[in-house]
Amino acid sequence: MLIHELLGQRLHLIPEKGIYWEEKQYLILADLHLGKAGHFRKSGIPVSDLIHSKDILTLDKLISRFNPVEVIFLGDLFHSDHNQGWEVFKRWIKSKAPLQFKLVLGNHDVLEEPNYRIPNLEVMEKLSLSPFDLTHIPEETELYNLAGHIHPAVRLTGKGRQSLRLPCYFFGERNGLLPAFGNFTGTAKIKIKKTDVVYAIADKTVVRVN
Fold first, then answer.
1. pLDDT per residue over 23-38, tens digit each?
2. Of 30, 45, 132, 170, which one has the greatest count of Cβ atoms within 10 A?
3. Where are the domains of the chain?
């Protein structure tokens, strides 16, 4: 784990692909895409829900490790229409009370509004917590923007034309990107400028690469 200092704030970059904001004691994650396995099964593609169970177990361990006052999801918490995966997650999130959760809605968060009526879950379109504006899709915002959606990755090259694509944290001049927390997600290689700061995640380690 590394600490990225940004606008006077200490952001702990976790190898499990989340940020612990030290000053606020918030745990911030993006793009869990829970329920995606069930979505694939509806299309006749056999994918086990165990992959999502592992993500929840990882999240549970992070909550135990950092003891945050709040957990913030930067969108795409649930991948598709309602299925049993949401009911499993709903029971889990209720079991974590009095811990509070916030969901900044993403483009895949398409459940009907009553499904989000969970006592310790607050749902919103955007969240401003100075010095950051938290969104799902990257935006040009008044404050520094932290977002998900992109599933950022960086390609590292070695000798003999070897290359490796790794999920990463990205911090530009006005925007930062979190890697996708969910394991059942793809990645997208991002363009990097000399002034950008990028941390790759490899072998349960966070390493600065730019």
1. 999 999 999 988 644 4
2. 30
3. 2-208
